[in-house]
Amino acid sequence: MKFRGTVEEARENKIMLEEELKENIVIPIRKKQIKWYNPTFMIMKAKVQSESQPYLTFEFQNNHYTYRTIPFGTKSSPIYFVKAMETIIQQVKMNIETRVINYVDDILLLHKNKENLKNMTQRVIDTFKYFRFIKNTKKSQTEPNQTAIFLRWKWNQTNSTAKMKLKKQILFLHDLYYMRRLIKSGKEITVKQTVKLIRKINYLRQQFLEASLLLHTTDHQNAQAARLKRWNTTMIMNMNAIPDIN
C-alpha cells in the first residue's frame, strides 16, 4: 500500500522509518517477495516468523519494507490486532468458496453444502494456525449447523433469520424510527448519531438488499461530513435515504 499523506506527514514518517531501520524493527524487502500490503506502521514487541513477513509489507517513497516485530503487549495492540485480522480475513475470502461474515475475531461461514462447509471451516482454522492465531475451543462452533450464535444473535439458516432479544428489538426500533423522524423533518443530526445507527443495523445486510442500500447511503453521507469537518459536526441527511427505512 503506497503512502498517502501530506508533505509534513511524509517527513515525519520518514524519520520514524529511519529510526526503525536502525533498530532493525523494519527491514527492506524486494517487491517480488510481497504477499500483502499492511496499511499501518508498527512498533517493536514480538518477533514475526519469516514465513509471515511477506504479509506485513508496506511501501514508502518507492521502497518496500516488512516488519520483523509486532506490537502485542502495548496500549495500541487492539488496533494492530484488528489490522492483522483484517489482512488474514481478506486472504481467507479470496481462497475459499463460501460466504464469510466477520467482526474482528468473530467469524461466521455460510454454505449450502454441509460437507463443503466442514472442509472449508478446517481450511480457515489451518490458515489462522499458520499465522499463529489460536482458536478458543470453548466458544467456537466448528461443526456445520443450521443455527449458530454469532455476535449474541441467533442465526437460523433454515429460514434466513437473525433474532435478537425482545428488549433489544424494542430499543432498536425506537432508534430507527427516531432517526427516520429527524431525516423527514430535515433537522440536523450529528455524524456520531448516524454511526451509532449504522452499527446497530449492520447485521441486516445479510438478510435484506434494502438494508445494504440504506447503510451505503447513510455511511457515504456521514463520511463526507466527517471528512469535511469533524465527527462531532452536525449534518442534514439526504432525503434519498428515507425510502430505504420506511
TrEMBL record:
InterPro entries: DNA/RNA_pol_sf (IPR043502), Hepadnavirus_pol/RT (IPR052055), Rev_trsase/Diguanyl_cyclase (IPR043128), RT_dom (IPR000477). Gene3D superfamilies: 3.30.70.270. Coiled coil: none annotated. It comes from the Eukaryota. Signal peptide: none annotated. PROSITE patterns: RT_POL. Pfam families: RVT_1. Residues 1-155 form the Reverse transcriptase domain. This is Reverse transcriptase domain-containing protein. It comes from Streblomastix strix.
